[in-house]
User: Which sequence fits this backbone?
C-alpha cells in the first residue's frame, strides 16, 4: 500500500520507519531537514513537499505538534491553500497528532466535503512505543473507516481502541492523560509522605499497588527512584514522557473543560503544578519528576 | 486460643464472629449493648467488661473508631486506669483501629513497658471484607510479633502486609487511602469530562483502564453509574465505603502531613472536596458519589 | 456627538441610556427586540440594523457577551461581511465586551487596516454600576485613542484605567477577576471556619478587615449573610455579579493561562469550584454564594 | 506594675523591652541564654528561672513557639510540675503565643482552677511591629480580663481586638493568616499572569488595588519586586514574615479545619504550596517569595 507520512519528529519518525519495514511504500515529508535525514537513513523515501508526498497515496498519515499545525497543513494558512485539495478523492486521512477535538472535527468536515475519509487517531506509549511498534491508538471516526485503517495502525501499535465518532479519539486521550497526571502526582505525594514517616519505599509501593491505591504508576512507572529499575525515576528522570509534553496535554484537557464549563479540580491543579514544575526548569525531564516538588531538595 | 475482642461495630462485629467460627475461644466486649447483642446472636461469648474480656486471653484485639478511644481504652482517661494494667504479661495486643501513627506508638510504648507485645494492624476491605474474612491487614511491629499474630489475622483477612516498625501499618493505610481518594476524584473528573463530550461511559472507562490512566477505581469500582454492575455507583451509592469514613482517613493523612510539614496538594484538596461533599449531605453515601460534585445536578 | 451603541443587554442598555441622558445623539441596536424596547422607552433612538446604527457615528461602542460575538459583529461570520466595512474612516471603535485579549488584538488589527481607531475597554462594577454610571473601565490602546474616548467613557463610569497596549484592558480585567474569585472563596473559607469555632461573624469580619487578611470582600461584599446589610449575601444572594458570569471570566483567565503555560494553582481551582457550584444549580445566584459550598447545608 | 515575661525570641524580646521602656518592672526569662543577653542589654532584668520571674508579678506574659511549649511551661511535662503552681492567686496570665485554640482552652481551664485569670492574645505585625510597639492583638477571654490587660497590651501594640471567649484570639488569627496566605498566592498568580501578557507590574498592581481585587498585599506588600519600595519583594525577600512561620500558621489552621471537618480548599492548597516552597529551600525567605513558584526561574 502507498502511504504518505507527514511529520517525522520523535514520534512520527519511528512510526514511518515501522510502516516502511512492514513493506508499505512510504512517501515521507517534514519541513525540518534533519528529521527527514534520520528517516531517510532507515530507507524511507523522502518527498520534496507535502503535495508530492500525497501524490498516489491510498492513505495519508500526519503526526504534528499542535492544533494550529494540523489546521495549517490540511486547510491552509494565511491565504495559502491546504493539502486537502491535493489528495485524491476516496483517500483515507489518519491524523495521529494530539490536538483539540474541535480542530479534528473541523478538519474532518472539510476532508469529507472534499470526498476524503478521515479519522483522528492520537497515540499513547511514548517514543519507546513508537520505536517498538507497540503504541496505543485511540480512534475517533466511523467503524468502516477504522476497519480500513486497522491494517496500517497494526503495523505501528499493539492496541487500537475505538473511542467513538470523530474527535472522540482526542477526547479519550486528554481524559486519560489528565487522569495519568493526577495519579502520578497523587502517587508522588503518597510515596513521599510514607517515606517521610520512615517507611521503605519499595515496601510501601508494593502494599499500595496491591491495595485500593493501585494504579499504572505503581505498576510500572514509580516516581520514587529505585522502586522500578527501568523507570525514568531510576535513571535520573531521563527519557520517558517529558514534563512539557504532559503540560501540553493538560492544557488541551483544560481548554476543553473550560469550553464545556466542566469542573475538574484535580485535573486543573495538576496542570498548574506541571506548569510550575516546568517554570522551575524541569520541562525536559520525565513527567514523573514531579515528585521533586513534594520532596526535600537536596 | 483464647482471644479478647474489644469493639464490635460494623467492622469489629464480623471480625470477632469469624474468629469464633474458626474455633477460637473469643471473649468480646463493647460499651454499646446493641453491638454486643448482634455478636452474641452469632454464638460469641460476651464479657461483662473490658477487664473481664482480657482475663486469660493470649491475644487481645481492639477495633475502635478513633485515636482517643484507643488511647482511652488502653491508657485510661480522666484519671481512670487503662486496660493495659489488666492484661497478663506476655500477651499480644493487636490494634486494628485506623488511628494516628503517633497514638499507636504511644500505646505500644506503654504496652511494652507493661511487658506486652503490640502491633498496629489497620485494615482495608470494608464491611464486605470483614464479613467474608478477606480483609487486607497493614501491620506495623516486629517480625516476631507479626508471625505470632499471623494465624489469627489469617482467620479475618486474605492479605497481610508488613509495612515496617510500630505505626507503619497506620502510615501505609493513610498513604493508600489518600491515594485512593485522589484517584477516585480524578477518575470521576475524567469520566464526567469524557461523557460531557459525548463519549460512551463504558467505552471510555475501558480505554482508560487498559491505558496509562488505569487504576483500582476503573478496575472494579467505577464512580459512573452502570459501568460496573456491582459497584455502589450502580446501586444508588449505597453500601461500600462511606464518604464520612473516607473523610476521617483523609483527616488522619492531613494531620500527619501537617505535623511532617509534608506537601500533599492533591491529597489536601481531596480532603477539602470530601468535606464539602459531606457538608452538602452526602456523608452516608459511598465515597464514589463524589462524582456528583463534578456533574450536572439531575 | 453621534454615537452608535451595539448590544443592549443588562449592561449595554443602561450604558446607552446614560450616554443619551448626557446629551449625546445615540443610535442603538440589538438583535433582541426586547432589549431594544427597554432602551427605546428611555428615549434612545433605535436603529434598524448595525449598519444603520454606525452611519454618521463618530464613535462606535459595542457591549456583547463573548469573543465570538465581537468577532462575528466586526469581521463577519460564515461568509457574511463584518461591520467594519460600514464604518467611516477615522471613527473610534470602543469594545467594552469582556473577551479574549487575542480577539481584541485581532479585531483591532482589522479595524486599523480599515482606517479606524480601536480600544478595548471592558468594565467592572456590575449592573448597578452601569445604571449609576459609576463603572470602572480598564482600557487597552494608545494614549491618544484613550484621550479621545475619555469624555464618552466618563459619562458611563467613574474610574478609567489605562492598562497598556491593545488587549491590555482585557488582560487587566481577567487578572483582577481571577484574584477576586480567589479572595471571595478564601474569605468564605475563613468566615466559615471561624463561625464553626464559635466566633461571631461580624466580629471576625471586622478583625480580618482591619488586619492583613483585609480585602474588597471584607470591605463591602461579605459572603456571610448579615455582615453587610446591602450585600447580596444579606438578600438571598440575589442581584450582584452572577456565578455564571464569574465562571465565564475565570474561563477566560484559564484559557489565557493555558496558552501562556502560566501556573495559576488557586485561580484554576477557583474556576473548578465555580463550575461545580454552577453544576449544583447556583449559576444564577450572586458569586458570593460560593460560601454555601463550604458550609453545612441548611 | 510588675510583669513576668517568658520567651524572649524575635517577637518576645522587643515586646519585653517595650514594657520596660514604658516604666513597668519586667522580670524576663528564656531558656536560651543568648535571647536573655539581648534583652538584658536593653536594661531589662533577667530572672534565673520561670519560677523566679513570676514571683511577685501582677501580670505574666508568655511568647513561645508552639502549643507543646505553652502546655509544657504552664502545666508541666514528663512529670515535672508546671509554672501555674508558682503564680500567685489573682494574677492575670496573658499568652501571646500562636498555638492551637484547644491548647489555650486547656491551659485556661487549669489556670482558672488555680485561681488565676487567663487570656489568649496572639499577635500579628511581625518583628517590625514588635519593635515599634504597633502589634495587633487578637484576644480571647472575658471583657473584664481584657480590660485588665489593655493597659499592658497598649504598650506593645496599636490595635486590640476582642475576638470572643477563650481560644477565640487563636481562631481569629489562624482564620486571618489562612486568608492572608490565600490572597498572597492569588495576588502572585494575577501579577505573574499579567506580566507574562506584557503588562507593566506597577500599572496592573494599581488597577487591581483600586478594583474588586483589592487586598492587603496590593496595598502595601506586593510580592512583585519593585512595586512597593519597602516591601520584602524589593529587598530580595529578606526580613518580613518568613515562609516557615506562615507554614506553621497554615498548619494550625488545617489542624483545626481537619478536627472541625471544615472544607477549606484554597486554605489547604495554600498550606501544600507553602510546604513545597519550604522544601525547595525558601523557608527562611519572606512569605511573599511564593511568587517564585509561579514565575520562570531566573
Assistant:
Amino acid at each position: 500500500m502507498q502511504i504518505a507520512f507527514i511529520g517525522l519528529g520523535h514520534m512520527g519518525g519511528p512510526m514511518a520507519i515501522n510502516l516502511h519495514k512492514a513493506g508499505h511504500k512510504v512517501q515521507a515529508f517534514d519541513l525540518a531537514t534533519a528529521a527527514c535525514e534520520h528517516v531517510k537513513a532507515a530507507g524511507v523515501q523522502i518527498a520534496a513537499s507535502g503535495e508530492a508526498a500525497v501524490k498516489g497515496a491510498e492513505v495519508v498519515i500526519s503526526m504534528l505538534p499542535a492544533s494550529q499545525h494540523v489546521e495549517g497543513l490540511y486547510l491552509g494558512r494565511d491565504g495559502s491553500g491546504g493539502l486537502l485539495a491535493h489528495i485524491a478523492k476516496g483517500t483515507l486521512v489518519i491524523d495521529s497528532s494530539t490536538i483539540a477535538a474541535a480542530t479534528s472535527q473541523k478538519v474532518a468536515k472539510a476532508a469529507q466535503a472534499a470526498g476524503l475519509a478521515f479519522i483522528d487517531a492520537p497515540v499513547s506509549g511514548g517514543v519507546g512505543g513508537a520505536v517498538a511498534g507497540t503504541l496505543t491508538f485511540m480512534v475517533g471516526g466511523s467503524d468502516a473507516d477504522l476497519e480500513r485503517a486497522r491494517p496500517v495502525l497494526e503495523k505501528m501499535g499493539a492496541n487500537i481502541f475505538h473511542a467513538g465518532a470523530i474527535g472522540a479519539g482526542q477526547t479519550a486521550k486528554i481524559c486519560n492523560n489528565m487522569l495519568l497526571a493526577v495519579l502520578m502526582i497523587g502517587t508522588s505525594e503518597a510515596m513521599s509522605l510514607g517515606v517521610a514517616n520512615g517507611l521503605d519505599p519499595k515496601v510501601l509501593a508494593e502494599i499500595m499497588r496491591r491495595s485500593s491505591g493501585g494504579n499504572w504508576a505503581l505498576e510500572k512507572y514509580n516516581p520514587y527512584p529505585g522502586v522500578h529499575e527501568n523507570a525514568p525515576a531510576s535513571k535520573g528522570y531521563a527519557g520517558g514522557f517529558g514534563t512539557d509534553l504532559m503540560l501540553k496535554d493538560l492544557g488541551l484537557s483544560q481548554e476543553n473543560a473550560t469550553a464545556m464549563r466542566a469542573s475538574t479540580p484535580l485535573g486543573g491543579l495538576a496542570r498548574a503544578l506541571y506548569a510550575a514544575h516546568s517554570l522551575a526548569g524541569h520541562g525536559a525531564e520525565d513527567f514523573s519528576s514531579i515528585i521533586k516538588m513534594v520532596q526535600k531538595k537536596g
